[in-house]
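Side project, low priority. Logging it here so it doesn't get lost.
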Amino acid sequence: MRGWIRLHRKIRENGIFNDLQLFRLWVICLTEAYHRPMDKPLGKQIVRIESGQFPTGRFDLHEMYNKGLKKKDQVSEYTVWRWLLTLEKGGFVSINSSTKFSIVTIVNWDIYQSDEHLNEQQVSNKRATSEQQVSTNKNVKNVNNDKNDSQLETAVSSDGILITDDTVHEISLALQNAVQAIEDHYITKRASGTMVNADDYKKIMNLVEEGVPVDSIINGIDSAFDNHKPKYPGDKIRSFGYCETVIRELHYNKTQKDERNNERVTKKTLPPFKKNDRREKLPSSVQNQLNGNHQKSMSDEELAIKEERAQELLRALGEID
């Protein structure tokens, strides 16, 4: 890529300067922006790209961001897109997305990068006219060497769901709204600064993506600050990581409590067994019949005994053989 960009010294006074990830992405945006308007073929259409703009898809931007980074420092395409939305929120860029690509516009491009300013600082040289024309175009990509259009086309996820830049944008906006609410609350409790750094941003994003409710995260932030006991003058919470520990602990405890409550509600317990001491009562007709038979059998037996005793007595008296 040929050409150069103009970087004002006051960038060092901006919070983005101390956020290495966002600053890297911001510089990528600056160096990708076109210096001259041109018509660019994107897919099956011709799109007018103005100066200070550049077309991209989530794969393009993701690839550019991770290029040259160590494996541990590389991030996903969704993370890069969320950071791009953070730049949009901060007033650095604006994004216009379609189903196949997005046009990113550098805000205030003309103020800092216009040709009038650039021409004043360009160094004269003796290059051939043709070479000068090429260098003037700077970041304009060669149409014949464009990346495969498939990277700008829609993609299908592993579960068969159609994913487009619009889909990513919508998902990212929903996440961004949740993250924004958490960021604002954390910054208010911290009572210093206007932005969170990339490490804190990642921690917040991880909590949201893991499904921890926003209310639980905010309650955890409150608990962390309310229960923080300074050990020395100036000791205060300086990182969201401190809050994250409290948030995860509270969320775990709440989850366990909810599970126990659900078990109590859903578990079907049998009533305690009570031994019935009463014998089962038979129908009166059956009971009377049994009683009658019992009484009859007892009378015959008694009669037989009496007859035997009588015979023994008569033998003893010699009246019978």
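Brief comment: The radius of gyration is 43 Å.
Revisit when time allows.
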